[in-house]
Amino acid sequence: MTKPLKIVVPMAGFGTRLRPQTWSKPKPLVSLAGKTVLDHVLDMFRSVPNFESAEFVFILGPLMGDQIKEHVAKHYPDWHVDYAVQPEMKGQSDAFWQARKLLHGPMLMAFSDTLIETDFSCLKDEKKDGVAWVEPVPDPRRFGVADVDDAGEVISIIEKPESMDNNLAVVGCYYFKEAEALISAIEKQIEEDMILKSEFYLADAINIMLDRGLKMRTEKVRTWLDAGTPEALHETNRYLLGHGRDNTEDLDLSAENTIIPPVFIHPSAQVTNSVIGPNTSIDEDAIIKDSIIKDSILGERVEVADSLLNTSLLGHDVKVRGLFGKFNLGDDSSAVF
After folding, report:
1. What digits encode the pLDDT tens for the residues 181-210?
2. Residue 131 pLDDT grade (very low, low, confident, very high; cuts 50, 70, 90)
3. What pLDDT shows up at residue 134?
């Protein structure tokens, strides 16, 4: 790759399935296993060849984009990051169209609510024009799938196939040797109004590229995780805590606490006379007193007292006392009994 690789992350959606968490912050900044979802997405790119020279393009929505910029400036000050804005939610292809002036040369993309485990070092000597990351699934009818020929080359991307014959679900991560080819295909897609339910889907643009002769192969991922709904967020939190994010051995908590791994508790969190875990993550500056918390995700500066929380999701600056059960509370909420 002679030109710097562009790593593109569309994140313009409103995140309606994650409300109330996303009323006050964009979906990529929701807490997950001691970081934000965005941090985990960016971590998965670190195996990219010449990662230090890669240039990021983040496609933001019309609301709350400044929070993304502030987070990136604070945590990734040395990275080259450009921003584009998608003013209307008109689909995946439209998001890339809004960023077209920034997209040239080799390009790797993934959506902001999808986490995968794969080794991107395979791109170092990539011969094909494109790569689609896939995972075999028992029932492909809920997904888009890559239809491949006997040589393993992609023939087309099929959205929600009726047949069970092809189970290679595309996970929303693609590499294109020339971003210009994608932009040209999207231009044709828009000109021909290839739209479904008011949205331009990326699969249609990729099929245009394939019809034009694009040579694309598939690459299987080791793990495919979702962070787009509360249920999926909890499932992904459990996985991450069980695969490297557990910091139980590093904790310096008093003997009056009981910790049941795996958990992540930020070093600045204060935990007193409580039972934490399993599968619980607690962000910085949280204060937990006289409580039992399991299978839950607690954001920054949360205060919990005299409560039993199970499979709960608490945003930043939430204050609760006397709660028992499963709760999903957005930022700055208060529930005291």
Report:
1. 999 999 999 999 998 888 899 999 999 999
2. very high
3. 95
Level-2 CATH architecture, domain 6-226 = Alpha-Beta Complex (3.90)
Measured from the Cβ of residue 123, the count of other Cβ atoms closer than 10 Å reads 19
Please name the amino acid found at residue 269. Answer: A
Tokens of 105: 């040369």
Instruction: Output the pLDDT for position 155.
Output: 94
H helices present in 17-111, as ranges: 37-43, 65-75, 92-98
Contact in structure between 83 and 103 (CB atoms under 8 Å): no
Cβ burial 130-159 (10 Å sphere, 16+ → b, else e): bbbbbbeeeebeebbbbbbeeeebbeebbe
Average pLDDT of the residues in 143-153? 89
Contact 134, 219 (CB under 8 A): yes
The residue among 265, 334, 274, 333 whose CA lies nearest residue 308 is: 274
Class of domain 246-336: mainly beta
Q: What is the pTM for the complete model shown?
A: 0.92
Compute the distance between CA of residue 137 and CA of residue 170 in angstroms, rounded to an integer.
10
**Domain range annotation of the chain:** 6-226, 246-336
d(CA 109, CA 264): 29
